[in-house]
Specification:
about 240 residues; alpha/beta; TIM Barrel; 7 helices; about 30% helix; globular
Length: about 240
Amino acid sequence: MARPLAAAIERHPHLADECPDGFVRVDMHTHTMFSGDSTTTFDEVAEAVTEAGIDVLCVTDHNAVEGAKRLTDALRDVCRVIIGEEVRTHTGEIIGLFLTEKISYGARADATAAQIREQGGIVYVPHPFDPMRKNLTEASLVEIVDAGLVDAIEAFNSKTSLQSLNARAAQFGRDNNVVLGAGSDAHVPHAIGAAYMQMPDFDGPQDFLAQLARGTVVGHHWDKARPWSARIVPSIVD
Protein backbone atom coordinates (compact mmCIF):
# COMPACT_ATOMS: atom_id res chain seq x y z
CA MET A 1 0.00 0.00 0.00
CA ALA A 2 1.40 3.42 -0.94
CA ARG A 3 2.16 5.88 1.84
CA PRO A 4 -0.60 8.34 2.70
CA LEU A 5 -0.78 11.59 0.82
CA ALA A 6 -0.15 14.90 2.58
CA ALA A 7 -3.85 15.75 2.69
CA ALA A 8 -4.68 12.53 4.54
CA ILE A 9 -1.81 13.05 6.99
CA GLU A 10 -3.10 16.53 7.72
CA ARG A 11 -6.53 15.06 8.55
CA HIS A 12 -5.16 12.01 10.36
CA PRO A 13 -1.57 12.68 11.55
CA HIS A 14 -0.98 9.14 12.81
CA LEU A 15 -1.06 7.91 9.21
CA ALA A 16 2.44 9.36 8.77
CA ASP A 17 3.82 6.53 10.94
CA GLU A 18 5.13 3.48 9.15
CA CYS A 19 3.33 0.17 9.61
CA PRO A 20 5.77 -2.52 10.88
CA ASP A 21 6.75 -5.24 8.44
CA GLY A 22 4.15 -7.97 8.37
CA PHE A 23 1.46 -5.71 9.87
CA VAL A 24 -1.62 -4.23 8.22
CA ARG A 25 -3.94 -1.31 8.93
CA VAL A 26 -7.53 -2.50 9.35
CA ASP A 27 -10.42 -0.04 9.57
CA MET A 28 -13.05 -2.26 11.19
CA HIS A 29 -16.14 -0.06 10.78
CA THR A 30 -17.07 1.91 7.63
CA HIS A 31 -20.16 2.82 5.61
CA THR A 32 -20.97 3.39 1.94
CA MET A 33 -23.96 4.58 -0.08
CA PHE A 34 -25.56 1.21 0.72
CA SER A 35 -26.14 2.56 4.24
CA GLY A 36 -29.19 4.79 4.46
CA ASP A 37 -27.21 7.52 6.23
CA SER A 38 -24.14 7.66 3.94
CA THR A 39 -23.66 8.82 0.36
CA THR A 40 -20.06 7.63 -0.10
CA THR A 41 -19.67 6.14 -3.58
CA PHE A 42 -17.36 3.29 -4.54
CA ASP A 43 -15.01 5.67 -6.35
CA GLU A 44 -14.80 7.81 -3.22
CA VAL A 45 -14.08 4.74 -1.08
CA ALA A 46 -11.25 3.70 -3.41
CA GLU A 47 -9.71 7.17 -3.36
CA ALA A 48 -10.02 7.51 0.43
CA VAL A 49 -8.56 4.07 1.15
CA THR A 50 -5.60 4.72 -1.12
CA GLU A 51 -5.00 8.14 0.42
CA ALA A 52 -5.25 6.82 3.99
CA GLY A 53 -3.04 3.77 3.45
CA ILE A 54 -5.67 1.34 4.73
CA ASP A 55 -4.79 -2.26 3.84
CA VAL A 56 -8.02 -3.97 4.94
CA LEU A 57 -11.44 -2.32 4.91
CA CYS A 58 -14.36 -3.76 6.85
CA VAL A 59 -17.48 -2.54 5.03
CA THR A 60 -20.27 -2.58 7.61
CA ASP A 61 -23.31 -0.95 6.06
CA HIS A 62 -26.53 -0.74 8.06
CA ASN A 63 -28.59 -3.90 7.56
CA ALA A 64 -27.01 -4.53 4.14
CA VAL A 65 -24.14 -6.55 2.65
CA GLU A 66 -24.58 -5.90 -1.07
CA GLY A 67 -22.24 -2.90 -1.11
CA ALA A 68 -19.53 -4.85 0.70
CA LYS A 69 -19.90 -7.74 -1.73
CA ARG A 70 -19.54 -5.45 -4.74
CA LEU A 71 -16.55 -3.65 -3.21
CA THR A 72 -14.72 -6.94 -2.76
CA ASP A 73 -14.14 -6.93 -6.52
CA ALA A 74 -14.17 -3.16 -7.06
CA LEU A 75 -11.30 -2.62 -4.57
CA ARG A 76 -9.33 -5.74 -5.48
CA ASP A 77 -6.35 -3.66 -6.67
CA VAL A 78 -6.62 -1.18 -3.78
CA CYS A 79 -7.15 -3.14 -0.57
CA ARG A 80 -8.79 -6.24 0.84
CA VAL A 81 -12.44 -6.01 1.84
CA ILE A 82 -14.08 -7.85 4.71
CA ILE A 83 -17.82 -8.22 4.19
CA GLY A 84 -19.64 -6.98 7.25
CA GLU A 85 -22.98 -5.61 8.38
CA GLU A 86 -24.04 -3.32 11.21
CA VAL A 87 -27.27 -4.94 12.35
CA ARG A 88 -30.00 -3.28 14.40
CA THR A 89 -31.16 -5.62 17.16
CA HIS A 90 -34.02 -4.97 19.55
CA THR A 91 -31.52 -3.53 22.06
CA GLY A 92 -28.98 -1.77 19.82
CA GLU A 93 -26.43 -2.48 17.10
CA ILE A 94 -24.06 -5.39 16.53
CA ILE A 95 -21.56 -5.82 13.70
CA GLY A 96 -20.95 -9.11 11.97
CA LEU A 97 -17.66 -9.53 10.07
CA PHE A 98 -16.65 -12.17 7.50
CA LEU A 99 -20.25 -12.64 6.42
CA THR A 100 -21.54 -14.37 3.32
CA GLU A 101 -25.20 -13.38 3.60
CA LYS A 102 -27.28 -10.59 5.10
CA ILE A 103 -28.27 -10.94 8.75
CA SER A 104 -31.93 -10.27 9.57
CA TYR A 105 -32.48 -7.21 11.76
CA GLY A 106 -34.80 -6.59 14.69
CA ALA A 107 -34.08 -9.86 16.49
CA ARG A 108 -32.74 -10.29 20.00
CA ALA A 109 -29.05 -9.53 20.44
CA ASP A 110 -28.21 -13.14 21.32
CA ALA A 111 -30.11 -14.44 18.28
CA THR A 112 -28.31 -11.94 16.03
CA ALA A 113 -24.92 -12.99 17.41
CA ALA A 114 -25.87 -16.62 16.82
CA GLN A 115 -26.78 -15.84 13.18
CA ILE A 116 -23.37 -14.26 12.67
CA ARG A 117 -21.61 -17.25 14.21
CA GLU A 118 -23.62 -19.65 12.02
CA GLN A 119 -21.99 -18.03 8.96
CA GLY A 120 -18.56 -18.49 10.50
CA GLY A 121 -18.45 -14.76 11.17
CA ILE A 122 -17.06 -12.66 13.99
CA VAL A 123 -19.34 -10.84 16.44
CA TYR A 124 -18.07 -7.29 16.97
CA VAL A 125 -19.85 -4.80 19.25
CA PRO A 126 -19.53 -1.20 18.00
CA HIS A 127 -19.59 1.99 20.12
CA PRO A 128 -20.83 0.04 23.16
CA PHE A 129 -21.35 2.93 25.59
CA ASP A 130 -22.11 5.81 23.22
CA PRO A 131 -25.84 6.68 23.34
CA MET A 132 -25.46 8.88 20.25
CA ARG A 133 -24.45 5.84 18.16
CA LYS A 134 -27.46 3.52 18.79
CA ASN A 135 -25.34 1.48 21.15
CA LEU A 136 -26.24 -1.91 22.51
CA THR A 137 -27.73 -1.48 25.98
CA GLU A 138 -25.34 -2.33 28.79
CA ALA A 139 -27.62 -5.08 30.11
CA SER A 140 -27.78 -6.68 26.66
CA LEU A 141 -24.02 -6.32 26.19
CA VAL A 142 -23.29 -8.00 29.50
CA GLU A 143 -25.79 -10.75 28.70
CA ILE A 144 -24.20 -11.73 25.38
CA VAL A 145 -20.65 -11.37 26.72
CA ASP A 146 -21.50 -13.67 29.63
CA ALA A 147 -22.99 -16.11 27.12
CA GLY A 148 -19.71 -16.15 25.18
CA LEU A 149 -21.30 -14.61 22.08
CA VAL A 150 -18.97 -11.62 21.63
CA ASP A 151 -15.62 -11.95 19.83
CA ALA A 152 -14.46 -8.32 19.86
CA ILE A 153 -15.51 -4.91 21.14
CA GLU A 154 -14.90 -1.48 19.62
CA ALA A 155 -12.43 0.17 21.98
CA PHE A 156 -12.10 3.23 19.74
CA ASN A 157 -14.80 4.72 17.51
CA SER A 158 -13.68 7.92 15.81
CA LYS A 159 -17.21 9.40 15.81
CA THR A 160 -17.48 9.08 19.60
CA SER A 161 -16.82 12.61 20.85
CA LEU A 162 -16.34 11.77 24.55
CA GLN A 163 -13.08 9.87 24.84
CA SER A 164 -14.17 8.65 28.27
CA LEU A 165 -16.71 6.45 26.45
CA ASN A 166 -14.02 4.88 24.27
CA ALA A 167 -11.88 4.39 27.38
CA ARG A 168 -14.79 2.71 29.12
CA ALA A 169 -15.26 0.36 26.18
CA ALA A 170 -11.57 -0.56 26.21
CA GLN A 171 -11.64 -1.24 29.93
CA PHE A 172 -14.79 -3.33 29.60
CA GLY A 173 -13.07 -5.44 26.97
CA ARG A 174 -9.99 -5.97 29.12
CA ASP A 175 -12.07 -6.77 32.21
CA ASN A 176 -14.09 -9.36 30.28
CA ASN A 177 -11.28 -10.86 28.16
CA VAL A 178 -12.86 -9.61 24.94
CA VAL A 179 -10.52 -8.66 22.10
CA LEU A 180 -10.30 -4.91 21.35
CA GLY A 181 -10.98 -3.39 17.93
CA ALA A 182 -11.16 0.07 16.34
CA GLY A 183 -12.86 1.72 13.40
CA SER A 184 -13.59 5.09 11.88
CA ASP A 185 -17.36 4.53 11.61
CA ALA A 186 -16.84 6.61 8.47
CA HIS A 187 -19.99 7.91 6.80
CA VAL A 188 -18.03 10.36 4.61
CA PRO A 189 -14.91 9.58 2.54
CA HIS A 190 -12.40 11.70 4.45
CA ALA A 191 -13.23 9.94 7.70
CA ILE A 192 -11.91 6.59 6.45
CA GLY A 193 -8.73 5.77 8.34
CA ALA A 194 -9.50 8.06 11.30
CA ALA A 195 -9.32 4.95 13.48
CA TYR A 196 -8.00 1.48 12.73
CA MET A 197 -6.17 -1.51 14.14
CA GLN A 198 -2.50 -1.92 13.35
CA MET A 199 -2.11 -5.68 13.57
CA PRO A 200 -0.20 -8.66 12.16
CA ASP A 201 -1.51 -9.84 8.81
CA PHE A 202 -4.00 -12.70 8.91
CA ASP A 203 -5.65 -15.46 6.92
CA GLY A 204 -9.36 -15.98 7.54
CA PRO A 205 -11.72 -15.06 10.38
CA GLN A 206 -10.22 -17.12 13.20
CA ASP A 207 -6.68 -16.00 12.41
CA PHE A 208 -8.02 -12.44 12.15
CA LEU A 209 -9.31 -12.72 15.71
CA ALA A 210 -6.02 -14.17 16.95
CA GLN A 211 -3.95 -11.45 15.29
CA LEU A 212 -6.40 -8.73 16.38
CA ALA A 213 -5.52 -9.62 19.97
CA ARG A 214 -1.91 -8.71 19.13
CA GLY A 215 -2.87 -5.43 17.48
CA THR A 216 -2.71 -1.80 18.54
CA VAL A 217 -5.61 0.66 18.57
CA VAL A 218 -4.81 3.79 16.54
CA GLY A 219 -7.04 6.79 15.98
CA HIS A 220 -8.54 10.13 16.90
CA HIS A 221 -11.95 11.80 16.93
CA TRP A 222 -13.40 12.69 13.50
CA ASP A 223 -17.03 13.69 13.05
CA LYS A 224 -17.01 16.58 10.61
CA ALA A 225 -20.05 17.13 8.43
CA ARG A 226 -19.70 16.51 4.73
CA PRO A 227 -19.71 19.76 2.73
CA TRP A 228 -22.98 20.06 0.84
CA SER A 229 -22.99 19.36 -2.87
CA ALA A 230 -25.56 18.15 -5.35
CA ARG A 231 -25.28 14.39 -5.52
CA ILE A 232 -26.94 11.55 -7.39
CA VAL A 233 -26.75 8.24 -5.53
CA PRO A 234 -27.87 5.09 -7.37
CA SER A 235 -31.06 3.41 -6.20
CA ILE A 236 -30.09 0.72 -3.70
CA VAL A 237 -31.87 -2.62 -3.62
CA ASP A 238 -30.45 -5.23 -1.25
